[in-house]
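user: can you give me the structure for this one chain? C-alpha cells are fine.
assistant: on it. calling the predictor now.
[tool input]
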Amino acid sequence: MSSTNHEFHSRQLMDLAPPDIRAHLENDDTILIPMGACEMHGDHMPLGTDIYNAVEVSRRTAEKAKTLVAPPIWSGYSPHHLREPERGMGTITMRSQTLEALIHDTARSLIHHGFNKLIFVNGHTSNTKITDPIFRNLRYETGALLAMFKPYGERYLGLIEDVMENPPDETPGWHASEQETSIMLAYDESNVKMDRAVDRRAHAPKWLPDAFGKEDGAWDAQFKGYEYFYFPMEHNEFAPDGVIGNPNRATAEKGNEIFERFSTYLGEAIDEIRKIPVEIKQREYVLKA
C-alpha cells in the first residue's frame, strides 16, 4: 500500500495539529470518516456495536494505507430500534435531516481544508436509507469524490464467508449474530456478555397475513416465494430480542480476522482511489448560520 513521507504519532485527525494535516495533504487527499449508530443489539452486545466496527476498521486501515481518520459520526438513523417508551433500550437515533446535516457539514469542512476524496466507513446499514441524496448533492456542489465502505455481512458475506460457521438459516452476518458478536469480542471482550446471548430467527410481523414471509433483517417480505414487497417495520416486530441469528459460534479470533480482512481490502482500494482525478469546483465552505 502507498505511504507518505511524513510520520505521524497518530492517524486520528483529532490528535493532530495543522502542520501535521498540511504535511498529509502534500502527499494524500484522502480521509476516512467512520459512521455508525448507537442502538440496541440484543442483551449481550454493546449499543456501540456499529460505530465501534467502523472505528476499528478505519483505525486499522489508516495505519496500513497511511491515511487519516476524521472524528466519527457516532449516532445514525435508527428510529426502528427505539422500542417502547421507558424500556431503557438506549438507542439514540438521528432524524434523517439531522444525519444529512452532519454528513454535509463534516464533508464540507474537510473539503474546505483540502481533502478531495472522502471515504465514509459505515457500520450501520440503515444509514444508507438516507445517504444517497446527500452524497450526490455534495458531489454536485463541490466536485469531491465521496465513497462508502460497508464492513458488514448481512445478505452478502463476501470476504468473510469462509470465516463464518453459522449455516445460512442462522444468518451469520445479521444483527448481533456470529459476525457482529465476533468483532465486538475482538474489539473489547468486556463489552460482550455471552451468558445473555440468545439464538433467534427473524419472522414476519404479526400484522402481515400468513401469506407473507420474512427470513432476515431487511425490510423486505416474500409473497408466494418472491420478494417484491417492502414495508416500513419496527425491528421488534420481526426480531423481538434484537438478535437475528446465532451468536454462540462467535469468537474474538474470528472478529480479529474479519477486522484484518476488511481493513486490508479497504487499504488496497484506497491505493486505487488515490489515482482518481478530482476537480474541486467549490472549495470554500461559507456557513449560512
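assistant: here you go. The chain has a mean pLDDT of 95. The domain at 13-167+255-273 is CATH 3.40.50.10310 (Rossmann fold).
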